[in-house]
Amino acid sequence: MAKLILSLNGNVLNQYFVDKPVITIGRDTSNDIVVNDALLSREHARIVSVGEDHIVEDLQSSNGTLVNGSPQTRKILHHRDVIGLGNHSLSYQNTRMASDVDLERTMLFKALPRDGMPIHDALAAKPAIRSTKTWQPDAGVKVLAVDAGPHEVGTEVRMDRVVTTFGMPGEQLIVITRRPQGYFLTHVEGAKLPLVNQRAITAEAHALQHGDQIEAAGYKLEFLGEATAK
After folding, report:
1. Sign of the alpha-carbon torsion through 62, 68, 72, 75
2. Residue-wise pLDDT tens for the chain (230 aa)?
3. Of 37, 45, 73, 210, which is the most buried if we count CB atoms within 10 A?
């Protein structure tokens, strides 16, 4: 699991596991990571989980957010990146991310807009993020039932893209990400966690297996594909 290590002048103050879809950072005590620093805004930045990736977003703070010394509005994080927050810093640690998925992660980030649109909205607006790599075998999901959405019952949606989304931003949103290890379901937004084979998943990415039945975001889906590597 990825974690963030909070430091001040080289001294470690605390560490936090990235175990939620969104982790907020700022001076206000309502934040997940509270940093008592006069240079920080009350709601300064946040870390958003997308699959196994994490993206830092500045929340229009007064003094900005740095990543490895450079001002950033939004940036996908890599292992050992340092987020500058006033006099404090957060070191991002994620040893699970392998170098062979860097291209995939970069394409995901490039597909996100830079005009301030929230990440969750951007994912729904740009579902066809494609990799130039050849990925085999292919997989997909079959729509078994749907309350509302662009896919009709009986439709097969191919997983020939890095990220495929289902649902509506601001209500309920899930993503299925394609990686060398297989396919992973992640809950992005909404009060109700997705069900896989009638059991709720956690906030972490859930590895999908052939025949899994997914209930989320107004859909009932059957995953059709090779088993995900353990």
Report:
1. negative
2. 789 999 998 889 999 999 888 999 999 999 999 999 999 999 999 999 887 789 999 999 999 999 999 999 988 888 889 999 999 999 998 876 544 344 444 444 444 444 445 554 444 444 444 444 444 457 889 999 988 777 889 989 887 777 778 877 667 778 888 777 788 888 877 778 899 999 998 877 888 999 999 998 889 999 998 644 43
3. 45
Give the tokens for residue 185: 């379901």
Separation CA 208–CA 205 (nearest Å): 9
pTM: 0.48
Query: How far apart are the C-alpha atoms of 182 and 50, rounded to whole Å?
Result: 16
CA dihedral 108, 110, 113, 119 (to 10 degrees): 30
* Local structure of 109: helix, strand or coil: helix
Q: Output phi, psi for 33, to 5 deg.
A: -115, 110
- The DSSP code sequence of 18-84 is --SSEEEEESSTTSSEE---TTS-SS-EEEEEETTEEEEEE-S-SS-EEETTEEESEEE--TT-EEE
What the block records as the tokens of 201 is: 């998943």
* Beta bridge pairs of residue 92: 4
